[in-house]
Amino acid sequence: MTMGPICIKNELKRKGYGKILLDYSLQKAAELGCGALCFEGNIDFYGKSGFRPASEFGIRYHGLDEGEDASFFLCKELISGYLDGVTGEYAPPEGYFVDEKAVEEFDRQFLYKEKKTLPGQIFS
């Protein structure tokens, strides 16, 4: 299973809300029977909830050669041993990719709004 990203408003960061939201999401995923979660993220944050580099589980990130830095690609077993003996390549779900032309066409249906890239935003 994959999920994310988890986003917290700048003025509410560093108050524990992100970890609460993440841990709640992990609990719900476990209740649904999910054995493991893999996604892109910062180990400094997600590591506090038990995530480790996916390479430790033998899982590579799509499009990267073996040994290439994929420290952003994380994994956590929700069922101990669920990934034992598993190796392979993770590819982000198709729904994660955006057709920029389709977005522009969609946006034209609404009143104009200036698009901005804010501090801390990964993608513009």
Automatic annotation (TrEMBL):
Q: Domain named N-acetyltransferase: which ranges?
A: 1-71
- PROSITE patterns named among the record's database cross-references: GNAT (PS51186)
Q: What domain of life?
A: Bacteria
SUPFAM superfamilies in alphabetical order: Acyl-CoA N-acyltransferases (Nat)
Return any one Pfam family short name. Answer: Acetyltransf_1
What Gene Ontology molecular function terms does this protein carry?
A: acyltransferase activity, transferring groups other than amino-acyl groups
Name assigned to this protein: N-acetyltransferase domain-containing protein
Q: Which organism is it from?
A: Coprococcus eutactus
The organism's lineage? Bacteria, Bacillati, Bacillota, Clostridia, Lachnospirales
